[in-house]
Amino acid sequence: AGAGGKSAILTALCIAFGCRAKNTQRAATLKDFIKTGCSDAAIAVDINNQGEDAFKPDIYGNLIKLERRITKSSSSTILKDQHGRKVAHRKDDLNEIVEHFNIDVENPCVIMSQDKSREFLHSGNDKDKFKVINFFSFPPIPLYQ
């Protein structure tokens, strides 16, 4: 389905988790994501924080609320607990969560934009593409001749 906003959602998630605007290939700076006529943009993401892999559950509880706000002159990140109470706001705090949950939004094997996918699919030969994909696969996929 076209024009459903899937790429916009993916881009918003990347920005929320700390990706640089340039790396989204949709904007040069974060302020470029502010809708024309608006003074700011906001992204809110709720992260399930349950189970044995929970991040600081004694502080955040069962849900981590991530809010990213972008203005023409700055951007900020606020991390809240399951009740909406502010817990943290530093870039390092976000990085700690991203590393804990292994969310690598700048790795093209984790998230690849439509443009990058198109570029990859139309470049090189099939064996070269297979080598790239296989490099990141575990266990490696056998190549049948």
TrEMBL record:
It is found in: Chromosome; Nucleus. GO terms for biological process: double-strand break repair via homologous recombination. Keywords: ATP-binding, Chromosome, Coiled coil, DNA damage, DNA recombination, DNA repair, Nucleotide-binding, Nucleus, Signal. GO terms for cellular component: nucleus; site of double-strand break; Smc5-Smc6 complex. InterPro entries: P-loop_NTPase. One of its GO terms (molecular function) is ATP binding. It comes from the Eukaryota. Residues 1-21 form the signal peptide. Belongs to the SMC family. SMC6 subfamily. PANTHER family: STRUCTURAL MAINTENANCE OF CHROMOSOMES 5,6 SMC5, SMC6 (PTHR19306), STRUCTURAL MAINTENANCE OF CHROMOSOMES PROTEIN 6 (PTHR19306:SF6). This is Rad50/SbcC-type AAA domain-containing protein. It comes from Aegilops tauschii subsp. strangulata (Goatgrass).
